Amino acid sequence: MPLYAELHRHLGGSVVPRILWRYFQRQTDPLTHKFADYDDFEEFYTRSRNTLDEYLELHTLVEHVQTVQTLPYFIYRLIRGAYIFENLAYLELRYTPYLRTSEQLSQSERIDQMAQIVEIVGQASQVQDYPMVTSQILCMHARLPYAVNKAIVDLAAQRKDYVCGVDLAGGDAHYGERLAEFVGLYQYARSLGLNTTGHLYETSDGCYPELLPYLMRIGHGIHIPLKYPELLKEVAQRQQCLEVCPTTYLKTGTLEDIYQLKVVFDSCFEAGVDIAICTDNAGLNNVRLPFEYENLLTQDIIDFEQMQACQDAAFRHAFAWPHQQHPASLLTGLLKNPRDEVVAANGTPRTKD
Asked: Which UniProt keywords apply (predicted)?
């Protein structure tokens, strides 16, 4: 049984449609009146969009209900599904904590409440029945003011017990006018000893080489091999890993066909650039991580050897994985020589009959 590491999963987009629909029904949310039944809602929630911005609008559907009171409800179900149906051994959840605070508060009060959000997410992620290593990545946001984004970086540095890194989200096409500001924030994050990733080169409008030197991993990054393959040498030298989320690019209209990713994988493997395969928004995309691997295999985009390399890369580049080895290696040690010996009740080994 393979065990997986998920490096790029958004808290907002991770709620599967059935869980979200049941929540809306129990809360008698007016949204349910817009749909005839669950099937109608699922079709709306998971269908493809024309652009990344249109796709990201769906995050607001979930963000406004992920509050101090409800976050444990959603996270418990997220962890349960990830453990049972996806065989995850490691999960990094990313989100913008400011967008889970109360809109009734002032900006400074919402900044203060972010610490409570991080605590709630951290506590709710520790589910004894479904043991896996979890950590948080806090997302700065392209549409939030500088003061909020800096506070997010400061909070990440203060709560390294729960937080393993920072990200920049909100649509990579919107960075341009504030590029110097975001460069400064990443410089600040690195000065605090924080791990960094960022949504970059996801779309053809989000290609900013100025940000690349400050990232340890690259969120998506598919337009580096697709449009700027000359950058792959630098990416390899920095030992940066691409977080590739195959289904997302079809859902956002970024790619027309999944087979276009073959250029991405072939170019990266040739250049020595690691790729971690991820889901991005498992709920919105209606996909689980093992399927992303299987689909790439059946579409002849990668082979089994490359699949294993991506699985290994995910654990190697995980910001908070506490072991030097892939979990399969740990299991091998536990299960060593199971055919040759069994342990007697008194603890002495005896030959199996």
From this structure: Hydrolase, Metal-binding, Zinc
